Amino acid sequence: MKNKIVEHVVDSYGIRPEAAEFPMMCVLSFVYVCNALCPNCPYTNSAIREGYKDRLLMAPETFRLIADQCGEYGAWVRMSGGGEPMLHPQAVELMEYAKQKGAKVGLITNGSRFTEESSRRLLAVGVDMIEFSVDAADPVTYHRVRAGLQWDTLLNNIKRMVSLRNEMGSSTKIIASGVNQEGVDIDEVAAFWEPLVDNFQKRKYLTWGINDPDKSADSTPYLPPEEQVPCPFIFERLNIDSRGKIMVCGFDIAANTNMGNVHEKSIREIWHGEDFEYYRQKHLNKTGEEIEICKNCPDWKYRSWKHNYWKIVDVAEHTRQERFEKLDLMDSEGCLADDGNKDA
């Protein structure tokens, strides 16, 4: 237990060097529609989407405004939150735009909406990472934890994505993730997917203050709650809803906080503004619990300064390169290529 906690903390805290000028990542609630009814999704179990009826899809001009600024600093645009990003009719076009502007692009998807054409376009433009939320290793479990989706569709789309990536020599990293939740053998899920993708991420079961915490299969904290270790999110990333409103962190999926709007101020200005500074100083002083939203955050203890998105990206890239090296040794028949050194 102690070792697990220690490996997630660092010696000193503050804005990461890569985020000194601009957040490392802008996490977008790109859509508020979904084709699944996952029983442990906070959007399934709340009325948050009802509040976004006027803006279920992020407007292209809002996305481009964000992508332009992320591109200037080489920051990540991460398509996540709210629903299934590929349900946005301009999803592929907008991700292509972000890459053309110099941003890094990460996509979290349930994997149900890919065609060969959309897969090729994302791979051709070099979307940096595609994460498939799988949560299961068999169709029976998948039907239960990913209600509304089809196992065969997921499996076929992932296999095709990886095959096309290898064929095209794309730089895109492809990973899978599973939530460590009640009724799911997460080790079995990892064992099934790891040979197929570049990395597998075991996700903590998060509640967002909405879901039942008893459904977690591993409640071991990453950060010791009693020590009030600063939450890393406010030092590296920010979250933006479909209207362009910035929330203080990923826990606030209902957008109860308002740090500013990208249509009114630049992201850099908001990132360095008084509101974010207030939160950071409270956390640095180990008084984060004096902030109402932080005090009531059940997921703060599952944040990590070391086991994070950046580590997952690095591992996936290493695996991707290794697999390309192995492919270089194979001929078109899938056999080890003749290196010219065999005995006559």
Overview of the structural elements:
- With 344 residues, the protein is α/β, with parallel strands linked by helices.
- The protein has eleven helices and nine strands.
- The protein has helices at residues 2-6, 60-73, 91-100, 116-125, 139-145, 151-168, 186-193, 267-271, 274-284, 292-295, 309-328, and strands at residues 25-29, 76-80, 104-109, 129-133, 173-179, 199-203, 237-240, 245-247, 260-261.
- A nine-stranded mixed beta sheet has the order 6-5-4-3-2-1-7-8-9, sandwiched between helices.
- A hairpin with a 4-residue loop joins β7 and β8 (245-247).
- The N and C termini lie far apart (60 Å).
Topology readout:
Elements: H1 2-6, E1 25-29, H2 60-73, E2 76-80, H3 91-100, E3 104-109, H4 116-125, E4 129-133, H5 139-145, H6 151-168, E5 173-179, H7 186-193, E6 199-203, E7 237-240, E8 245-247, E9 260-261, H8 267-271, H9 274-284, H10 292-295, H11 309-328
Parallel strand pairs: 1-2, 1-7, 2-3, 3-4, 4-5, 5-6
Antiparallel strand pairs: 7-8, 8-9
Helix pairs in contact: 2-3, 3-4, 4-6
Task: Summarize this structure as a short list of keywords or feature phrases.
344 residues; alpha/beta; disordered N terminus
The number of helical runs is: 11
Q: Specify Rg, calculated over alpha carbons.
A: 21 Å
Indicate the overall shape: globular
Assembly classification: single chain
Side by side, the strands of the main sheet go: 6-5-4-3-2-1-7-8-9
The tally of beta strands, per DSSP, is 9
End-to-end CA span:
60 Å
Give the helix/strand class: alpha/beta
Residues in helix, %? 25-40%
What is the average per-residue confidence, as pLDDT, rounded to a whole number? 92
Unreliable residue runs: 1-6, 331-344
Share in β-strands = 5-15%
Query: Order of SSEs, N→C?
Result: HEHEHEHEHHEHEEEEHHHH
Describe the largest sheet: 9 strands, mixed
